[in-house]
Write a structure and sequence with these properties.
Blueprint: H1 7-23, H2 34-49, E1 56-57, E2 60-61, H3 68-80, H4 84-110, H5 112-123, H6 126-131, H7 137-156, H8 162-182, H9 185-201, H10 212-233, H11 237-251
Antiparallel strand pairs: 1-2
Helix pairs in contact: 1-4, 1-5, 2-3, 3-4, 4-5, 4-7, 7-8, 7-9, 8-9, 8-10
Length: 258
């Protein structure tokens, strides 16, 4: 359903209203969960040490997760100082961005009213609202994965051409950012969803117009530099990060019940 009017007005209005919702008393509550402490201390140590390559927790190398969220947290600390508000800012920003992405995708696919309703319903869902106020990787990686899948869904509905290419390139970029946030699940999850959908629907010809070569190049351009540099600086990185965190964690009982 085509719908061309008032995009800017709607996005501005949603940004103001939902920004106020997610920002309300954001820094009033002290840090209270292990995740909030962990994902605040790692960026604080980055800022203090000036080392943004190797994440550390209490001085110990911390390779469980990639650094994108830590980098954003570090930027917030440098711009606004060290406080509960500055440390929760990016989680709230991702929550807002997710609502705007749902509005954009919903409106593109089903019209203005559907996009607005979907965005407001998402923002006022209790779990989503709560997660937008807690320092954790779950909100950021969920939004990046959702944006990747929305970009793929919208992009494949476009005719072959520049617009389709740019939207599908956005899919690869969002998947890459999700990978830099929480590891290989950033590409495995959208890959599984899209792969199963293509298989069940018999849409194999779609692969010819998803710009795989250039898309894979974009994905690697975003994800590889940090992985290469941190592996060069830390010989133990690849074994721990790839084998321990991405295979033993899910295929064995090494970490106990998931």
């Amino acid at each position: 359903m085509a719908d061309s009017g008032h995009w800017g007005r709607d996005l501005l209005l949603l940004s103001l209203l939902l920004g106020a919702l997610f920002g309300f008393k954001l820094g009033e509550r002290p840090l209270w969960s292990p995740d909030e402490g962990r994902y605040s201390e790692i960026p604080r140590e980055m800022v203090a040490s000036g080392d943004y390559l190797t994440p550390r927790l209490n001085g110990v190398k911390y390779f469980e997760k990639p650094p994108l969220f830590y980098w954003l947290q570090s930027l917030s600390i440098q711009l606004f100082g060290l406080s509960e508000w500055s440390l929760r800012l990016w989680t709230a920003v991702f929550a807002l961005f997710g609502c705007l992405a749902v509005y954009t995708g919903g409106r593109k696919l089903f019209g203005q009213r559907s996009g607005l309703l979907a965005s407001v319903i998402l923002a006022t869902s209790l779990l989503y609202f709560a997660m937008g106020r807690i320092i954790t990787l779950d909100m950021s990686v969920s939004i990046l994965l959702a944006c990747a899948l929305l970009a793929f869904l919208v992009g494949t509905g476009e005719p072959v051409g520049t617009r389709r290419r740019l939207i599908l390139w956005a899919f690869y970029i969002f998947a890459a950012l999700a990978t830099l946030t929480k590891g290989l699940m950033g590409i495995v999850i959208p890959g599984m969803v899209i792969g199963l959908w293509i298989a069940f629907m018999g849409e194999w010809s779609l692969l010819k117009t998803t710009y795989l070569p250039s898309g894979i190049a974009i994905f690697l351009l975003v994800t590889l530099p940090w992985h290469i540099l941190v592996a060069q600086a830390n010989p133990e990185f690849l074994n721990f990060y790839i084998v321990h965190e991405h295979f033993q964690r899910f295929l064995t009982k090494h970490h106990g019940p998931l």
